[in-house]
Amino acid sequence: MRKVSDTIARLAALRGLQNTPPSFTSADRLSTLGKFGSNPGALQARCYLPADLSDGAALVVVLHGCTQNAAGYDHHSGWSQLADEAGFALLYPEQQRANNPNLCFNWFLPTDTARDLGEALSIRQMIETMVVTHGLDRKQIFVTGLSAGGAMAAAMLATYPDVFAGGGIIAGLPFGCAITVPEAFDRMRGHGGPSEQELQRLLRGASKHNGQWPRISIWQGSGDHTVASANAESIAAQWRGVHKLDTAPTHATSDRGRSRQVWADEAGEAKIEVNMIVGMGHGTPIGNGLGTAGPYMLDVGISSTREIARFWGLGDADYSSVSARSRSAIPRGETTPSTFHLRAASKEPAMARPAEPARIDLQGSQTGAVRKVIEDALRAAGLMR
After folding, report:
1. Are 154 and 172 in contact, with CB atoms under 8 Å apart?
2. Rg of the Cα atoms in the chain
């Protein structure tokens, strides 16, 4: 039986996230994506397209945390600033209070996190609509998120590994670690949970994927009292199996309050990284002129937005390979010290990219012709009946 103090702490945490911080309702650079399929998860869709976006650009899917919304998370994280610099498109799925009073993605409910069900399918339909409408590169689709959004990003990576080239999980949890409210609270606090072998089994069982797996960037604060830092290692452990990586990292570094462990394959390509920010609480690390501090958006002098994009190979540097210098500097295996609130819980056909995909303004006129193009593409992809 749980202690009374533990129950009170859990209820206080729920009450603490009932009101949306004002800073997440101010700036808005995003457009609304209209029709994008059957939308079984009843989510909203927002997007951002740089003025000079080229055909075949990358797409980054960003999932906000509890009490946040898409526009606020974009403003504080700086993703649209970086999109202007690097020339990629952004998609922001947005939770609705009818689904979750605290605006959390329902990251632990099987009906919302299984392939082709609920919120997961809604997000997949949004992605397909963006790709078809704006001629984006299917081989450069990425997903990131904070807290409940981070856990939902983990679910998307697990259930649609054929869709994503990479992911960024900030203060999140491993896929499948909880399926009930009590389990979700326990995992957030670092209590219990599946073994490493079971986590890896859950990941492999989430889809019929047998191709290349996404690379994963994991971020966590060592002082996070909402999502225990042990979850960062659990996420890494879950993904080491499919990437066939050893338990010990390939190399590790520590600089200015950030420790970074990297697991690379035999070719030297970084597949998993864990970034631990010493003393940081629950939130997204921002800094270096990108983004703005706010609730759960923490200026620690490090922009996780820019660093995650670099790890994927987007932006002004590529962290996807481990340099010979960094591999030799620290011997293999040597290391340095290093969501969320809840609503009670087939193989996809191959999709060929159109030769000359039309770019359609979904924010403008929603004509029958536009809807037909999108719906035909979704049906062809097996994402809509």
Report:
1. yes
2. 20
**What separation in angstroms does the CA of 265 have from each of 123, 132, 269?**
30, 33, 6
pTM as predicted? 0.81
Residue among 77, 80, 122, 147 flagged as catalytic? 147
Query: Token match 């062809």: residue?
Result: 380
CB 104 within 8 A of CB 93: no
Q: How far is residue 327's CA from residue 340's CA, in Å, rounded to a whole number? A: 37
Q: Tokens in use for 36?
A: 């994008």
User: φ, ψ for residue 151 (rounded to 5)?
Assistant: -65, -35
- Residues contacting residue 248 through CB under 8 Å, at least 6 positions apart: 332, 333, 335
Cα angle at 220 between 162 and 302, to 5 degrees? Answer: 100
Query: What gap in Å lies between CA 231 and CA 154, rounded to an integer?
Result: 12
Fill in the DSSP letter of residue 329. H
C-alpha 203: how far from chain center: 16
CB-based contacts of 370-377 (< 8 A; 24+ apart in sequence): 370/35, 371/35, 373/132, 373/133, 374/35, 374/36, 374/37, 374/129, 374/132, 374/133, 375/35, 375/37, 377/128, 377/129, 377/132
Query: Which ranges constitute the DSSP H helices of 135-191?
Result: 148-159, 181-188
The confidence band for 271, taking pLDDT boundaries of 50, 70 and 90, is very high
What is the residue whose two structure tokens read 């990108």? 290
φ and ψ of 342, to 5 deg: -125, 155
Which pLDDT band holds residue 369 (cuts at 50, 70, 90)?
low
| 31 a catalytic residue | no
Closest alpha carbon to 191 in 228, 218, 225, 219: 228
Question: 105-140 pLDDT, tens per residue?
Answer: 999 999 999 999 999 999 999 999 999 999 999 999
CB contact at 8 A, 297 and 65: no
Distance CA 239, CA 25 (A): 35
DSSP 253: E
Nearest to 64 by CA among 102, 108, 15, 113: 102
Q: What does the alpha-carbon distance between residue 24 and residue 242 come to, in Å, rounded to a whole number?
A: 37
For 316, half-sphere exposure in the C-beta direction (CA atoms, 13 angstrom radius) is 5
